[in-house]
Specification:
Layout: E1 2-4, E2 7-9, E3 11-14, H1 18-29, E4 34-37, H2 41-49, E5 58-61, E6 72-75, H3 81-92, E7 100-103, H4 110-114, E8 123-127, E9 139-141, H5 148-161, E10 167-169, H6 175-192, H7 198-212, H8 218-225, H9 227-237, H10 249-256, H11 273-296
Parallel strand pairs: 3-4, 3-6, 4-5, 6-7, 7-8, 9-10
Antiparallel strand pairs: 1-2, 8-9
Helix pairs in contact: 1-2, 8-9
């Protein structure tokens, strides 16, 4: 929130998808005002209806305001350089010099997004994960232009307004995206080369890494199990791992056939309307339960 001339202004969120609506939902659930700029007011309101009955702290707009008074503006866009730069330019034209802007980034680097900015020090990378109001994830991406005071403010706001457990990544790149890409690339490599089926890869991930990752990260897990043993395994495995440089054929095929996932009825699996409804229902239940489990076992238990 921003206080200027004795008035309090909401945090502004800009975007069009369920991740955006979830960011706003989390703010509202914790009692903080939000200004949402989105293309479809009706869809946005319906997405938040299940969790937020009292929307007195919410304002939804579909047209750009002449002036942006918010101290913090959160952008969620497709991972396309020109699109991000276009939206950032619109924000900069309307906001004060002390406004902090955050943008999601996966494959892109913060440095290249900043090249067209009037004031590149104001922009930080900020990645979320869905559903925002059930997770503790917040990845802040910074670089040599980042002002330390802005970084501290953003960390403070993430902890206070969203109850997140943020971490900071240097040099402008997302580590979440890189780690996920490495795991997904290897899974696709195993399927395309007939080592395993899609179902088998999913079971390996769910029943091993998926079992411990809500409890600890990879490094603490290696400590628990015996760190040196993993080094020995990697010494032999590394030369066998995928190092593909191009988009995998299986993903190209999915894109060409518009098999883009559950919302479209088919991705790596097929879904009829009842199956889609079932997965959405149990994902909601799982998110609630895993949130409580993570709270029960914090990553620094001696701090309790």
């Amino acid at each position: 929130m921003a206080v200027k001339n004795g008035m309090t202004f909401p945090i502004m969120v800009i975007g069009q998808d369920k991740l955006v609506y979830s960011i706003v939902t989390d703010l509202l659930l914790l009692g903080y005002p939000a200004l949402l700029l989105t293309n479809d007011q009706q869809t946005a309101a319906a997405a938040m209806e299940e969790y937020v009955s009292n929307k007195k702290n919410l304002q939804i707009i579909t047209d750009w305001p002449e002036t942006i008074y918010s101290r913090l503006v959160i952008l969620i866009t497709d991972d396309q350089l020109t699109e991000k730069q276009k939206v950032i330019r619109k924000v900069e034209e309307r906001c004060d010099d002390d406004t902090i802007i955050t943008v999601n980034l996966e494959a892109l680097c913060l440095d290249e997004i900043q090249t067209q900015m009037r004031n590149r020090t104001r922009l930080l990378g900020l990645n979320w994960t869905y559903p925002v109001h059930r997770t503790f994830f917040a990845e802040i991406v910074v670089n040599q232009y980042t002002r330390p005071a802005d970084l501290e403010d953003l960390k403070k706001w993430l902890k206070a307004y969203w109850k997140k457990d943020p971490y900071v990544v240097q040099h402008g790149f997302s580590i979440r995206a890189r780690m996920m890409a490495a795991m997904l690339r290897e899974g696709i490599y195993l399927v395309e080369n007939d080592f395993a089926s899609v179902e088998s890869v999913d079971r390996a991930c769910r029943n091993d890494a998926g079992f411990y990752l809500p409890f600890v990260g990879n490094f603490r897990y290696m400590d628990l199990m015996g760190t040196y043993a993993y080094g020995m395994v990697m010494q032999d495995l590394n030369r066998e791992l995928s190092n593909m440089m191009a988009l995998p054929e299986i993903l190209q095929e999915k894109r060409d056939k518009e098999e883009t996932g559950m919302d479209n009825g088919k991705g790596f699996y097929s879904y009829d309307p009842k199956e889609k409804e079932h997965w959405q229902k149990i994902f909601k239940e799982f998110s609630e339960e895993i949130q409580q489990l993570i709270i029960k076992y914090p990553h620094e238990p001696l701090d309790r």
